[in-house]
Amino acid sequence: MRKINVGLVGFGLSGKVFHAPFLHTHPFLHLHSVVERNHEHSKEQYPYVQVVKDYQALLNNVEIELVVITVPNEYHYTMARDALLANKHVVVEKPFTVTSSEAKELDILAKKQKKVISVYHNRRWDGDFLTVQKVLKEKLLGEVVEYEVHFDRFRNYFKENAWREKDVPGSGILYDLGSHLIDQAQVLFGMPNSVYADLRTQREGGKAIDSFDLHLDYGRLKVTLKAGMLVREAGPRIQIHGTNGSFVKYGLDPQEEHLRNGMLPSNQTYGMEDENRWGIINSDIRGLHVNGRIETIQGNYLDYYQNIVESIINRQEPLVTATQAGNTIYLIEKAIESASEKKKIQLV
Predict the structure, then answer these.
(1) DSSP string of 46-61?
(2) Which domains does the chain carry?
(3) Among residues 279, 275, 272, 273, which one has the least CA distance to residue 294?
(4) Each residue of 181-192: pLDDT tens digit?
(5) Cα–Cα distance between 318 and 310 in angstroms, integer?
(6) Contacts of 190 (CB under 8 A, 6+ apart)
(7) Are the beta carbons of 119 and 94 closer than 8 angstroms?
(8) Does the N-terminal or the C-terminal CB of the chain have fewer CB atoms within 10 Å?
(9) Where residue 159 falls among pLDDT bands split at 50, 70, 90?
(10) Distance between CA atoms of 284 and 281, rounded to whole angstroms?
(11) What DSSP state is assigned to residue 162?
């Protein structure tokens, strides 16, 4: 299999921590160029890369097949559009776009250009989510009636010059962390019947949403997605209740911590979770009462890029499609509408 040359746009936290290690490690991807307007930090870590100061110069390079966009959310649409028009395959950091109409336009354009476009919903490859998928597929809890997931953090101050905390399009925790939780719920259960949301700015002086409580109705199944920036003592990250029992889990997937500490995904212990953070199951399973821990499946975001490689080489649709990512943005829009009007928004 041939190597695919990649141009990475941006080398902030997202580009440096969540993309470059995988582009560097994957045997059929080559981190060819990085767009850094004011620095050359990428070259310090990856001496072989070409640092490009101008995005258009990257697009003009015929050697580059895949463009990975890790810039502030408000620029996702225009930069992805320009990359597609330059006949590049595209990976966009989540959230896909600011509006669902922009997402639809990119989906249509990618099909017209016969190019792969995907959104980096890497947390489909979190170990806890892979484990949840297995628990539900095997019906270990019976019929699921309630699914609640939190993505809580604690930071009671604002980062200097952090665009996610400013009053700009696509800022705030709903677009940032909410897009992950909505995407995961969509993978498990599809699109909901209705949306109800409570969105707040809890930190004094804040200019963007930093807390959300989102309810998705699926008939008998109730889905609750929550996140906040003022949760110093975290409760369960995942709670799932069914007609036969429950699954409860604490703690975030370890991959982000591993990446921030410089561990490469080629390390055998990458993505492995400590036993004390494994989920707890209490359920009746095929005539037996089971009460104990379930070992967390080892997660690896490299599998996302493996799928991108296969999609480009085999000219097939990726696992994370533009349609799915666009639906996530649509649900974010409906959550904002719900919070503004203080009512449930019916979707079907």
Answers:
(1) -TTSEEES-HHHHHH-
(2) 4-122+303-318 (3.40.50.720), 123-299+331-346 (3.30.360.10)
(3) 279
(4) 999 999 999 999
(5) 8
(6) 218
(7) yes
(8) C
(9) confident
(10) 10
(11) -
pLDDT surpasses 90 at 106: yes
Q: Are 59 and 1 in contact (CB under 8 A)?
A: no
Question: What is the distance between the alpha carbons of residues 117 and 279, in angstroms, rounded to a whole number?
Answer: 34
Structure confidence by residue, pLDDT tens digits, 191-201: 999 999 999 99
Dist. CA 261–CA 239, nearest whole Å: 29
Query: CA–CA distance from 135 to each of 1, 75, 139 (Å)?
Result: 35, 38, 6
- Asked if residue 165 lies in contact with residue 208, where contact means CB atoms within 8 angstroms, the answer is yes
Q: If you count them, how many residues does the chain have?
A: 348
Q: Going along 144-192, which residue ranges are E strands?
A: 144-150
Sign of CA dihedral 203, 205, 206, 212: positive
17/33 Cα distance (integer angstroms): 16
Of the pLDDT bands very low, low, confident and very high (cuts 50, 70, 90), residue 214 is very high
Structure confidence at residue 2 (pLDDT)? 82
Long-range pairs for 54-59 at CB < 8 Å and ≥24 separation?
Answer: 55/9, 55/79, 55/82, 56/82, 58/7, 58/9, 58/33, 59/83, 59/86, 59/88
Q: What distance in Å separates the CA atoms of residue 211 and residue 228, rounded to the nearest whole number?
A: 4
- The CA-atom distances, in angstroms, between 35 and each of 4, 50, 68, 78 are 17, 9, 10, 16
If residue 185 lies in a helix (H) or strand (E), which one and from where to where?
Answer: helix 179-189
Tokens of 287: 């005539």
Percent of the chain at pLDDT exceeding 70: 100
Give the bridge partners for 35, in sequence order: 9, 52
Confidence at residue 1, expressed as pLDDT on a 0 to 100 scale:
67
Tokens (6 digits) for 32: 């060819």
Beta strands in 153-287 (DSSP E): 194-200, 211-218, 221-228, 238-242, 245-249, 279-285
342 φψ region: left (φ > 0), alpha (ψ -120 to 50), beta (else): left
